[in-house]
Each structure stands twice: as structure tokens, then as C-alpha cells.
Amino acid sequence: MFEHSSPDLTRPGQALEHDGPSIPAFLKRHSSFVILLAVIAAQILLLSLQITRTNNVRLFRIWTVEAFDPLERSLGGFIKVFTTAYRSIHGLWHAEQENQELHVQLVAAQVQVQRLGEQAVETERLRTLLDLKNQLAFQTVAAEVIASSMASTSSPGENSNAISIDKGSDSGLTTDLAVITPEGVVGKILAIFPHSAQVLLITDPTSGVGVTLAQSRVQGILKGGRNGLCDLHYVMNEEVVNRGEAVVTSGLDQVYPKGLPVGTVVSAGDGNIYKSIIVKPAVDLNRLETVLVIPKPATAPQRALNGVR
User: Fold this and answer.
1) 79 falls in which pLDDT band (50, 70, 90)?
2) Most buried by CB count within 10 Å: which residue of 1, 26, 118, 177?
3) Are strands 219-224 and 261-269 parallel, antiparallel or unpaired?
4) How far apart are CA 272 and CA 49, in angstroms?
């Protein structure tokens, strides 16, 4: 008896089907209402197609425009933002390209200006050298400085004791020839080679230049000193030597012609017998580029021999 009265628990699916009405069942139960709604919607649609408003615009079109207007506005705004961003990015990229091109042109222009400036300085230097050659009463040979050697007694980077020039015995040069610039005396040729020569500067301690003080006309021997300066020897204590007084060649050493600028007195003081006089060279010996070499004039026998030839 218990088995016949107990509910059937083996078919839960069928029990769940009756828990609530399904959509087809709802439509079937309210079919008249659904049909009525469909007819009303169709009627409204037909009326919207027939009814016109201002400017003969149908109501359906107005509703359609109003329905899609927000979407159209959003899409138009997105397109406008995208277009603006694209134009901005493209403009920045184009500006960057122009900036790089202008930078390259600026660097090239700066190099050109620097090169033209160096050419102008070189031209002015050569013009000054040519003017000096025309003013001198003796012949000279122009030469370029190709190397310099540092003094062993000076710190690295200070004045050189010797330089090398690009003219030698093939240009008729010999040893003990004076080397000058438009500013004054540089030194003399110490060693000669076929295509070059070594010039001993006046700042070398082993050099010697016969000089005269321009104002007092006192004579002495100029030799190299310390720190790129020179010492004037053999001037007695009783002689008056003023600071800033010019020093010129005396011509008594048979190397340097008379009257060439050598330097300026920096200081002068009394010593045991002779004054201690320091002279600053007239030429900046650290920045030599082009010099003039003064060949010795030919002697009478040489001139006669050249005449015979």
C-alpha cells in the first residue's frame, strides 16, 4: 500500500516543467493581446509613413533620425577625434623630420663658417708674411712648420726648444740661418736635411742672440730661460734698463740682421756684476705656422764664380 501512495521521485524533470509557465504557453494564453499589440504597432508605423510635418518630412523619418542621431553624433565625434589625433601625430612626425634636416644643415653651415674663418685667418697671415718679405732689404725663403720638440727643462705643454720646417738643402738653406716672422726673431737653423731643417728657438738655453736695448743702446747676449722667457746677459749693473723696453738684434753675431724685434724687457734687477734681465719673446713660439728664413748673402768670390758660370 505504501508503494502505491508514494509520489514518483524518479522523474524530476516532469515535476520541474510545471513550476512556471513557459514563453510559448504565455503567448498561446495571451494570443489576442499580442495580436492587438502587433496591429497597433503596424498601424502606428503606417501612420508615421503617411503623416508629414514641417517641410514635408515624414514622421517615420523624423523618428528614425532621432533614434539614430545619438549614434551618428557619437560616431562623428569619434571620427573627428581620430582625424585630429592623426593630423597631430603626422604634424609632429613631419616637424621632427624637418628639425633633423635643419639640424644637419646647421651643422654643415657651422663647419662651413669655421672653414671660411680659418681660410680668412690663413689669408691674412700669408698677406702679412708677404708684406714683410717686400719690406725687407734682403731675400727670404718661406717655410711651413711641420713639427716641434719640447724642451727637456720645461713642463709638458710649455714652450718648444726646436721646430722643424719643410725646407732644406734642396731649397738652398744651410745651418746658422736666421728664422723670423712678421712679429720678430724665432731662432736659427741648427741642422739641415735635404727636404727639411731643424730650427733652434731663442728660448733654448744653448741659443745665443746678439741684441741691443732700443732706448739705452746697451748691448748684450740673449739666451733661453725658464717658462718660455729669455735672459739678457752681460749688461752691467750701472746701466739703466726700463721695464717694457724693446730688445732688437745687434747684428754682431753674424746670424741675425740688425734691427729685428726680439722681445720686451719684463723685469730688470741688479746682480753681482751684471743685471738680471728677463725678456719676453716678441713671437708666440707655441703657435708658429709659417716662417721666413734669411739666407746669407753670397760673398764676392761666390758672386764672381756665379758670374763665370
Assistant:
1) confident
2) 177
3) unpaired
4) 131
Cβ-Cβ contacts under 8 Å for 139 (sequence gap 6 or more): 294, 295
SS3 for 297? coil
Dihedral angle of Cα 26, 31, 32, 38, to the nearest 10 degrees = 110
Work out the average pLDDT over 182-196: 93
Three-state DSSP class for residue 76: helix
CB 299 within 8 A of CB 184: no
| Closest by Cα among 161, 154, 169 to 187 | 161
Higher pLDDT, 176 or 159: 176
Of 105-114, 125-134, 188-197, the least confident: 125-134
Backbone φ and ψ of 297, nearest 5°: -65, 145
* 192, burial (CB in 10 Å: exposed 0-12, middle 13-18, buried 19+): middle
pLDDT for position 2: 43
Cell numbers for 187: 731662432
Which stretches of the chain are DSSP H helices? 2-5, 12-17, 23-29, 31-50, 59-135, 300-308
Q: Is pLDDT above 50 for 99?
A: yes
Instruction: Report CA torsion sign: 73, 77, 78, 82.
Output: positive
123: β partners: none
pLDDT band at 67 (very low <50, low <70, confident <90, very high): low
Is there a contact between 229 and 150 (Cβ–Cβ < 8 Å)?
A: no
- 104: CB partners within 8 A, 6+ apart: none
For cell 717658462, name the residue: 227
Q: pLDDT tens, 10-43?
A: 444 444 445 555 667 766 676 777 777 777 777 6
For 42, residues 6+ apart whose C-beta sits below 8 A from its C-beta are: none
How crowded is residue 188: how many other Cβ atoms within 10 Å of its Cβ? Answer: 23
Instruction: Of 214, 199, 161, give the one whose Cα is nearest residue 292.
Output: 199
For 141-296, give the CATH class.
mainly beta
Phi, psi torsion values for 283, nearest 5 degrees: -105, 135
